[in-house]
Please model this.
Amino acid sequence: MNLGDVQVQVQIPHEIVQYWGWFLAFGIVVMLLGIAAVARSFAATVASMLFFGWLLVFAGGVEIAQAVMVGRWAGLFEHLLAAILFGVTGLLLVTRPIKSAEVLTIVMAMFFLVGGLFQMIGSIALALPGWGWQVADGLITLALGLLVLAQWPVSGLWAIGLFVGIDLIFYGGAWIALALGLRAM
Model:
């Protein structure tokens, strides 16, 4: 059986199709937020650190509540440990967002370096169909890691905001494409 012969029929409910305009508006707003994040990458980086930090502080509170609810159950220690980890990490992100962004940027650069190398070497070794594109993607990922690392710690002030902004632009574009596709139905 050839996978190219398989067709999937998707039925989209009329309730979703009739609200295509809301999807379009959402996509446009998200894309505009992404453009603003790219234009103001430093502010977007700090905002991302604060947002993620407060999420972790909230998660720490939820873990404490879970620890109280489980009482003497065997999972009490794990909940308390998670609460401490989430809470301390969240407070560090909230109280020192710029230093946190620098640390996360170097971790991200290392992830790109290792991931790019792994993808390049793995795709050459396996030589699957389309391996050249996989090597190119690995090379781009490796180069991105090198560029971010070469400008570190300054890149910690803008890289996360820039990447979040680019992601929001493409995410908004995907919603716009969905809305326009629904409109055509």
Remarks:
- The two ends are 31 Å apart (CA to CA).
- The first helix runs from residue 14 to 17.
